[in-house]
Amino acid sequence: MTQTTRTRIARLRTLGLTGIATTGAAAAALTLMPTSAQAAEATQVHTTSAVTASGNGSRAISQQKTGSANKLDGWIKQSLQIMKAKGIPGSYEGLKRNIMRESGGNPAAQNNWDVNAQKGTPSKGLLQVIDPTFNAYHVSGTARSVTDPVANITAAANYAAHRYGSIDNVNSAY
Asked: From residue 132, how far is each of 3, 85, 116, 121, 124 by CA, in Å?
């Protein structure tokens, strides 16, 4: 058996166990999201498409308030402020854990290989959100761009709150 075959079998076992541990067929299907290694690969592949400030100016204003919004820590803290004001539950630890698993901390990460991408709606950003989910769970006061770090985190946390009670309850692909 080749190393590639062993790796694929191990990945399938992990996906199967994760799927069994979650509830419902839809949750099992979601376990096909990339592993951390694949997210890191996406990070390397997509670094040329780095996010720039959105044209609406709201992000620039937000950056001035935090002073470090161009760093993961600042984006998470800024999102937490907005989440608190809007009554969206979640913690720094829950957000960071999910961000690191989903994108490795790269706001320009994009999944071009899963079922969503095959249907034309790739997962994007720090928490790998698809456009329809972002649009449905967008939080006012954040940029209207799925790749804006603060908007991506906040919309994903809003989605997780509605679906799982909190981003803190998400421990696998959601």
From this structure: 38, 24, 11, 8, 11
**How many other CB atoms sit within 10 Å of the CB of residue 83?**
22
Residues 28-79: pLDDT tens digits? 233 333 344 344 334 333 332 333 233 333 333 333 344 444 599 999 999 9
Q: In 116-131, which positions are buried (b, 16+ CB within 10 angstroms) versus exposed (e)? A: beeeeebbbbbbbbbe
- Contact status, residue 28 vs residue 19, Cβ threshold 8 Å: yes
- CA distances (Å), 35 to each of 8, 54, 56, 100, 169, in order? 12, 29, 34, 10, 18
In whole angstroms, give the CA distance from residue 12 to residue 68. Answer: 39
Q: What is the maximal distance between C-alpha atoms in the chain?
A: 56
Secondary structure of residue 118 in the 3-state scheme:
helix
Q: Report the Cα 98 to chain-centroid distance in Å.
A: 7
Judge if pTM exceeds 0.85.
Answer: no
Structure-token pair, residue 173:
């692909």
Quote the tokens at residue 147: 């790749």
Measuring CA to CA, which residue among 126, 128, 127, 155 is closest to residue 139? 155
Average pLDDT score over residue span 114-141: 97
Distance of alpha carbon 100 from alpha carbon 102, whole angstroms: 6
